[in-house]
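User: Fold this one for me? It's Mucin-5AC-like.
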Amino acid sequence: METTMMLFAALCLSIVVQIQGHSWSRWYDRDDPSITGDWETVADMRKTHYICGGCKPIGAECRVKGSSAVFTRWRGSAPNKLAANCLPTKGVICRNGEQDPTSYCKDYEIRFLCPSTKVETGPYLDRDDPSATGDWESVSSFRTTDNNNICRGVRPLCTLCRDKSNKTPYYSTGDKFNAGLACGWDTGLVCTTEVNGKYCRDYEVQFRCPVIGTCPTCARWTNWLNRDSPSVTGDWEHVGPTGHNPCNSHEPIDIQCRERSTERPWDQTGQVFKNKCTPSEGLVCVNADQAFGQACKDYEVRFLCP
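Assistant: Here's what I get for Mucin-5AC-like.
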């Protein structure tokens, strides 16, 4: 009986691997501990190359360099207090100033789980020629200014960016990009002369959209989830070990948030939010942040899983 169960478990594991097919990157250690700490950030890594081929990492594992003890956002723990606890979209950050007086940050390394989710790949697009202000190839600009509803309103899973004239990847051009818009997989690219300190090159971008459906590698929406009714402190529909884990410890591709009773979108309720409906953090409304005499409404969320 025990042998049969072991064979069944192995078969199930094999099926899961075949269905999910996601793959791990190499281990990264871009920073040695310094006076300030250890900074293994996704933003810094993406200044020199693509991670996951320009796609959003959907998982991460971290460890002290040379150790076999692995921890993630969801399990295990680090020997230090971390400012970013092995987050797939942020990395791992340890600040010496946040440790005990006699402790210093260890040297960490991180690897990323890259998605094999089915995507629709569009052509390279160039909506904006460089001007005195810069070059604007962002998802929001395509949608709001050009009425081009990139990925049918869903967040792209991957984005590739390059110099239009010579096809050089964005990270090799020498330009500097606006925070959160350095060829972000779900935001696109913006280079302003204010940030760059000079005229920006003319960039083009390619978006790869998750295919939503029932095929083995398709992305899928969860049901609407409501883990918390408004309480003394507020409404907490957050992602993390104490909140939602909607995609089986994988990073969600997208999120939708709404008021439960009216189905009104979260950003049309007039309330103030601590977590503003992001796939990595979810949605959090705190009563103390609202206008005098008001309390948070009851919200529900759903996630697009890879």
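One thing worth pointing out: The CA atoms of residues 183 and 189 lie 4 Å apart.
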